[in-house]
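Journal club side-thread
Mid-discussion, someone asked how the predicted structure for our own chain would compare to the paper's figures. Pasting it here so we can look after the session.
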Amino acid sequence: MARFPVRLALVPPLLYGAVACDDTYDYPPATPANVNDPSQSQAPQAGAADDAYADTDPSALTDFHATLDSHGSWVDDPTYGTVWAPNANEVGSDFAPYETAGHWAYDDTDYVWVSDYEWGWAPFHYGRWVYGASGWLWIPGRVYAPAWVDWRMGVDGYPYVGWGPMYPAFIWRGGLAVGYVAVGVPGHFYYCGRGDIFAPALATRVVVGPQVRVVEAHTAVYAGAGVAASAHVGLGVAHGPPPSSLGIAPQNVAHVSPGDRGVATARNFARPSTAAKMGAHPPAGARASARPRSGGGGFHGGGAHGGGGHHH
């Protein structure tokens, strides 16, 4: 695979408010026994501002440990700060987020990544993936999305569609979320024929080799009808092109199975009212008002950051 560097500009002044990782509260992390219970599955509700997390909530640095610790390593990367890297012997040398070991489904409003990994509910619905010197790394975040990706569409009916991990809006340094701005478009899109977007073994349908550049040259960033492409790239949840716009008939659209435990867990974990039952921290503001400070401390590392991406 070839790698295409992308410059990222660190923005030191953007320290997000109330994001210090405060270990003095000593809340327990989410426990594996509870996070996989989809019995009360609910998608995040629009307008429920009082029952939501900020993406930079410090619980992002603790609440995923119980699920991810045995499947990878947490490190203080000199480029991307506090990150998690999956075990290479578990995901394989060809691992790529939102491409390998999973497939796309559609929940009637947007594309949902359905991971084959038991732990996939966490890093494919929260946080962002970046490609560092040692491979793919995950930066924690605390807001749910069906998938944190950007999309590309074929120009003038060109029969391909593309998607790729969205740039993060911040990294973690010393327990604080530090914002940055990406310079240039992401260089890590995957492409497949429009009719293959719902293929169960999606990775086998992805374009590889020299054809990647050809396909990319005939596609453009998709941001929705009437929305400038630059308005979405890396800045928030970017909705994919409706299946109908790809020429996919309704009966050929794959949907999330009602019994899918991973997607149910991810959705439950998005809201404090349901995440609390799974052992998660409350939001930082509620935490401060609910419990007085006590002695203690902890450490979360961080670092500066750069950029990178890859194609297959």
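Post-session note: Residues 171 and 178 are 5 Å apart (CA to CA).
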